[in-house]
Amino acid sequence: MSDAVMMEHDELWDKLNEECGVFGVFNHPDAPQLSYYGLHALQHRGQESAGICASDGEKFSYHRGMGLVTEAFNGNQLSKIHGRMAIGHVRYTTAGESKLENAQPLVFKYTGGNLALAHNGNLVNAEQIRHQLERQGSIFQTTSDTEVIAHLIARSGYEIEQAVRESLRMIKGAYALLLMTENKMIIALDPNGLRPLVLGRLDEGYVVASETCAFETVGAEYIRDVEPGEMIVIDEKGLRSERFAGQTQRAICSFEYIYFARPDSDIDGINVHLARKEMGRQLYKESAIEADVVTGVPDSSISAAIGYAEAAGLPYELGLVKNRYVGRTFIQPNQEMRARGVRMKLSAVRKVVEGKRVVMIDDSIVRGTTSGRIVRMLREAGAKEVHVRISSPPVKNPCFYGIDTSSREELIASEKSIEQIREYIGADSLAFLSEKGMIDAIGRNDTAPNRGHCLACFTGCYPTEIYEDTKNCVEK
């Protein structure tokens, strides 16, 4: 990731960030408008750029822009996009630079006609394929690994379905992929199902999205989750499905349940809010502490905090309040002013925590800077004790599948023990949820290793071959 992109990380919310969200509509007169609302529902998955491409059966119309969905479409751009089929994308940069050229959907012309792609995830062998294609004469217009897929399709020489099928067999890593021609939509999920992707119905058409919360927004009916290694083709003949991968083994990113997905989404039939709440309950069973009040770091930790409080028989209180209308703190000119920016973004409710033994629930600790600031904030508001409980295991290893941790040096748990982390953040005590406790709390019923979860960021064992780091083990 470029230094410029790293600087744009919000210094208060020291969280893992996910690559993007995808949304598609087939056979609906308001496909572009529905895509706009669907992307709104998926805005939490990416805030750096947004785009929509539609087809009227003969030609494409599209727009992409930087910023939030409302910023990318801040004029009459949406009214110029027409068609009964559309795909949309919201992006957070983890592979490729943060610039308009990398905004998706990517749109191309090739011998078979027009092609648009929207992709959630990272390919672990993108650089190897890119170098091979460049040696064969391909010229890349972006630094996004999504363009690698487009070049593979364009150079295959097959008709579109076979071209996509063959291309998918060449790429490795995480991909929830939407692809569109003038009259056909193709949906595909990688053989490990690392990213969520769901299929729904709306009137006489179909809808596909990264999360079910987008279906609620547009009024679509959920049909099912797209299966790992599945390719779905939708055209005038209807919907048909096939498997492009011989071996599939579910390994969905655990952080979809922990942090990424919206609490009102269901993943594999499991509600995210209820899973997080159960993680909080399990966290109490594993690391109970005498306290007076429980509070959660807004917003993603609130569900787990409620579960912890219920299990502990303690009151859950709104001890921390987030101001949603303050800009990023990195623009402040010095550390003192930056600290003031932090206080503008998050504040402690003094009357709730003053003189109390507080349990502060958070979903993860990445670099440790956020947790330390919040602990200090609670103490300055009068908290007598601050006990930090994390509703996930320690993040010790980088992710290569679409999360913005590219090296172990960025992760405090890879360098420090739990006691050292406790000292660093200034808490009276610190505990993390165990891997088994997390899996049990989520409640997935799967015969795959780890009951169908990817635990790579916790264990260092990856569900695919990792080209960047040959020292890492691979789940068998």
From TrEMBL:
Q: Which HAMAP family match?
A: PurF
Give the protein's recorded name: Amidophosphoribosyltransferase
All copies of domain Glutamine amidotransferase type-2, residue ranges? 20-237
Q: Which InterPro entries match?
A: GATase_2_dom, Ntn_hydrolases_N, PRTase-like, PRTase_dom, PurF, PurF_N
Q: Which Pfam families match?
A: GATase_6
The yes or no answer to whether the keyword Magnesium is present is yes
**What does the record list as coiled-coil region(s)?**
none
Query: What SUPFAM superfamilies does the database record attribute to this sequence?
Result: N-terminal nucleophile aminohydrolases (Ntn hydrolases) (SSF56235), PRTase-like (SSF53271)
Cofactor annotation comment: Binds 1 [4Fe-4S] cluster per subunit.
> Which cofactor names does the annotation list?
[4Fe-4S] cluster; Mg(2+)
The record lists the catalysed reaction(s) as:
5-phospho-beta-D-ribosylamine + L-glutamate + diphosphate = 5-phospho-alpha-D-ribose 1-diphosphate + L-glutamine + H2O
The gene from which this protein is expressed is: purF
Which NCBIfam families does this entry report, sorted A to Z?
A: purF
- Give the species: Aneurinibacillus aneurinilyticus ATCC 12856
Q: Name one GO molecular function term.
A: amidophosphoribosyltransferase activity
Q: Which residues form the active site?
A: C20
Q: State which Enzyme Commission number(s) the record gives.
A: 2.4.2.14
Pathway membership = Purine metabolism; IMP biosynthesis via de novo pathway; N(1)-(5-phospho-D-ribosyl)glycinamide from 5-phospho-alpha-D-ribose 1-diphosphate: step 1/2
Stated role: Catalyzes the formation of phosphoribosylamine from phosphoribosylpyrophosphate (PRPP) and glutamine.
The answer on whether this UniProt entry bears the keyword Transmembrane helix reads no
Q: Which Gene3D superfamilies does UniProt cross-reference here?
A: 3.40.50.2020, Glutamine Phosphoribosylpyrophosphate, subunit 1, domain 1 (3.60.20.10)
The family classification in the record reads: In the C-terminal section; belongs to the purine/pyrimidine phosphoribosyltransferase family.
* Positions that bind Mg(2+): S300, D362, D363
Q: Which GO terms describe its biological process?
A: 'de novo' IMP biosynthetic process; purine nucleobase biosynthetic process
Please list the residues that bind [4Fe-4S] cluster.
C253, C399, C454, C457
